[in-house]
């Protein structure tokens, strides 16, 4: 069964088409990433799916059904830039959100899993940005959901804090959960996602597994070679060509650097703009 | 009903509240400070002892008694007419009635009694007045006959409105605190919660809107009653206020909490920035506080302001609380309660309907 099916979704704000006739689906058990720059329409899309906003047109099915209470029980959500109550501590915050669901997982284990054990008694307002976000992710997990929505969970965090969150997300995937991840970090999508949908000005311009997208739209790799005579650059369309070129050089170089295409290049190719 | 969710919503709100020194200050410390300050400023000062005398006898003897009273420098004597309503005058100052036939009684050496009408709540004043009267009466008796008592007096207690400023002030402060805590509280909930994404989280659970509003109202009522009790307790402990909560005053506080929460919800609907919403709330609460007779009686204001006051919900809250808690005017209190409850149902209903739960 598909975890999410979205058909011809459209949302208009004044003269901005925030979401423009978007169609896609998310398989159960995969990490699906909606990748796009600021204002692309990611939050609008995800919040329509979650039932927080109404669509102007289109259809959303979750586990084959329209959103209802039974399905809400299976969903866990971290809204973009979410802030919890200032003066509840970590444990209270999770217990508080757990009380809104019928099902709930062991809060102590959850705290342990996201690595906030030491901060258990700390008030929300005294947590660091990264800790707040970890707690936000934990809040999305209190009801042991099978479908998890995370809207830009790592924006503004340092690399270490970002890693922590990535680890939690990977752990969730291992438990068989479906994860809908919104991000404008291409390395995040590349690292985590099984499937990436690239969104630009309300439209999904490409959607596939990350390496396929790179294969399809990336301009291969650039090999920069420094020899005694100076710098030289070669272009390779794929990995095979990379190997061939390096072989042909017969180790007559001082330094070699291979720059492979990434989702950033894909985005640039598809839209003529950077990811920002 | 999701009891667990409701209980946690209340618990979380209370924790979040008491850990915030600012909100605790505004709900408890501030009103208490106001009472201590204003109560002290306006309670002082005694302008001597005034007594009304109603002379039904109009004789040489009664005039002699009045002269004797007037000779006491601390006492200010005011004569009232024979057909004056003694009960009404007694609500202001003690009234002494010299009965018809006083002179004849003295001449024929028969027992004769004055009647003293007093407000029992003014113990101090009463005991001074009584001691003055009895000193004169003793002297008269002594001069006329050193054995038996001819002139005596009996005391009648009048249930008076011998009210002081503090009696007026404390219910007003309770009304004001209920208003500010409900309006700012609902703005906190409906503006800040929205901004922070808490309403979004709520929408994505199967917890019902109605259950959530219910939990929030229980919390608001707990806070309002708690602060009303503290305010009243301080009034009683420091200023010997004679007041208590009865059914009608409880009803008024509940209705007021709903009414002002409704106003807050309506503000939050139209102003969705925190600062602007707070300013909008101040723009409503401050004038209302002064115009609705919280700090001073309406009677001292120009008549057009008095008319304005009567369209303000806080006026009915303040008046209702005074009638219920202090004046013990059950009918007037109930009328105010009905006005404010009707208003509450309408405004809270509008607020709940207008509130945008979903995002645009
Ligand atoms: N409530 C709203 N009212 C008016 N315009 C809106 C509203 N919400 C979104 N928009 C507009 O719709 C477009 C898409 O916004 P959206 O928040 O979905 O983008 P996003 O991809 O999530 O961006 P970001 O990465 O910055 O979060 C933007 O142009 C935004 O200005
Ligand atoms: Mg967004």
Gross morphology of chain B is: elongated
Average pLDDT value of chain A? Answer: 91
Q: How many H/I helical runs of chain A?
A: 10
Number of strands of chain B: 5
Structure in words:
Chain A is built from ten helices and twelve strands. By secondary structure, chain A is α/β, with parallel strands linked by helices. Chain A is globular. By secondary structure, chain B is an alpha/beta fold. Chain B folds into two domains: 3-42 and 164-359, no CATH class; 49-157, abc type-2 transporter like fold, CATH 3.40.1710. Chain B has helices at residues 3-18, 21-43, 60-70, 86-90, 102-107, 123-144, 165-196, 198-203, 209-239, 247-270, 274-291, 303-309, 313-325, 330-354; strands spanning 49-55, 75-80, 94-98, 112-118, 151-157. The longest helix of chain B has 32 residues, at 165-196. The radius of gyration of chain B is 28 Å and the shape is elongated. The two termini of chain B are 28 Å apart. Bound molecules: adenosine-5'-triphosphate and magnesium ion. Magnesium ion (MG) is lined by residues 42-43, 80, 151-152 of chain A.
Quick summary of this structure?
With 276 residues, chain A is α/β, with parallel strands linked by helices. Chain A is built from 10 helices and 12 strands.
List the helices and strands and how they pair.
The complex is a heterodimer of chains A (276) and B (360).
Chain A: E1 2-13, E2 16-27, E3 31-35, H1 42-50, E4 57-62, H2 69-72, E5 75-78, H3 90-98, H4 107-113, H5 129-139, E6 147-151, H6 159-174, E7 178-183, H7 186-192, E8 195-200, E9 203-208, H8 210-217, E10 221-227, E11 230-236, H9 239-249, E12 255-260, H10 263-271
Parallel strand pairs in A: 3-7, 3-8, 5-6, 6-7
Antiparallel strand pairs in A: 1-2, 1-4, 8-9, 10-11, 10-12
Chain B: H1 3-18, H2 21-43, E1 49-55, H3 60-70, E2 75-80, H4 86-90, E3 94-98, H5 102-107, E4 112-118, H6 123-144, E5 151-157, H7 165-196, H8 198-203, H9 209-239, H10 247-270, H11 274-291, H12 303-309, H13 313-325, H14 330-354
Helix pairs in contact in B: 1-9, 2-7, 2-9, 7-9, 7-10, 7-11, 7-13, 9-10, 10-13, 10-14, 13-14
Residues 42-43, 80, 151-152 of chain A line the site of magnesium ion.
């Amino acid at each position: 069964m598909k975890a999410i099916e979205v058909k011809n979704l459209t949302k208009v704000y004044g003269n901005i088409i925030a979401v423009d006739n978007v169609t896609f689906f998310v398989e159960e058990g995969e990490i699906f990433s909606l990748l796009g720059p600021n204002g692309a329409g990611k939050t609008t899309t995800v919040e329509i799916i979650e039932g927080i906003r109404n669509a102007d047109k289109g259809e959303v099915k979750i586990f084959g059904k329209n959103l209802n209470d039974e399905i809400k029980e299976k969903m866990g959500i971290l809204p973009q830039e979410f802030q919890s109550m200032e003066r509840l501590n970590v444990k209270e915050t999770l217990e508080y959100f757990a009380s809104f669901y019928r099902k709930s997982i062991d809060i102590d284990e959850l705290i342990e899993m996201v690595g906030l054990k030491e901060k258990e008694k700390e008030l929300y307002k005294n947590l660091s940005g990264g800790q707040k976000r970890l707690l936000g992710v934990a809040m999305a997990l209190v009801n042991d959901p099978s479908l998890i929505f995370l809207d830009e969970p790592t924006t503004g965090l340092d690399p270490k804090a970002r890693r922590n969150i990535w680890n939690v997300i990977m752990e969730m995937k291992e438990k068989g959960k479906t994860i809908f991840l919104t991000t404008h970090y291409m390395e995040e999508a590349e690292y985590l996602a099984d499937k990436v949908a690239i969104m630009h000005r309300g439209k999904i311009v490409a959607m596939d597994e990350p390496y396929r997208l790179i294969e399809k739209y990336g301009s291969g790799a650039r090999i920069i070679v420094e020899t005694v005579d100076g710098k030289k650059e070669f272009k390779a369309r794929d990995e095979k060509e990379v190997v061939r070129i390096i072989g042909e050089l017969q180790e007559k170089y001082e330094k070699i650097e291979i720059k492979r295409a990434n989702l950033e290049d894909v985005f640039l190719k598809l839209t003529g703009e950077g990811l920002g | 009903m999701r009891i667990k969710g409701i209980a946690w919503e209340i618990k979380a709100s209370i924790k979040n509240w008491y850990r915030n020194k600012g909100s605790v200050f505004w709900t408890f410390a501030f009103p208490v400070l106001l009472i201590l300050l204003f109560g002290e400023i306006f309670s002082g000062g005694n302008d001597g002892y005034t007594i009304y005398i109603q002379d039904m006898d109009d004789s040489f003897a009664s005039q002699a008694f009045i002269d004797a009273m007037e000779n006491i420098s601390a006492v200010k004597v005011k004569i009232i007419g024979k057909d004056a309503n003694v009960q009404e005058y007694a609500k202001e100052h003690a009234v002494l009635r010299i009965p018809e036939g006083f002179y004849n009684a003295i001449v024929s050496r028969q027992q004769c009694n004055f009647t003293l009408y007093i407000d029992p709540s003014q113990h101090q004043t009463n005991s001074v007045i009584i001691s003055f009267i009895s000193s004169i009466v003793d002297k008269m008796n002594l001069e006329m006959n050193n054995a038996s008592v001819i002139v005596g007096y009996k005391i009648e207690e009048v249930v008076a409105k011998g009210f002081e400023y503090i009696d007026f002030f404390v219910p007003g402060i309770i009304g004001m605190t209920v208003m500010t805590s409900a309006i700012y509280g609902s703005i906190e909930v409906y503006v800040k919660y929205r901004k922070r994404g808490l309403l979004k989280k709520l929408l994505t659970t199967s917890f019902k809107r109605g259950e959530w509003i219910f939990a929030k109202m229980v919390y608001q009522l707990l806070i309002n009653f708690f602060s009303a009790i503290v305010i009243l307790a301080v009034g009683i402990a420091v200023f010997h206020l004679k007041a208590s909560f009865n059914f009608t005053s409880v009803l008024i506080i509940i209705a007021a909490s709903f009414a002002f929460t409704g106003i807050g919800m309506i503000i939050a609907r139209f102003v969705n920035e925190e600062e602007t919403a707070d300013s909008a709330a101040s723009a409503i609460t401050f004038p209302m506080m002064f115009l609705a007779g919280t700090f001073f009686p309406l009677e001292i204001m120009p008549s057009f302001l008095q008319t304005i006051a009567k369209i303000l919900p806080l006026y009915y809250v303040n008046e209702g609380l005074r009638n219920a808690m202090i004046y013990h005017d059950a009918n007037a209190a109930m009328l105010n309660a009905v006005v404010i409850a009707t208003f509450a149902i309408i405004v809270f209903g509008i607020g709940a309907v207008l509130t945008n739960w979903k995002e645009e």
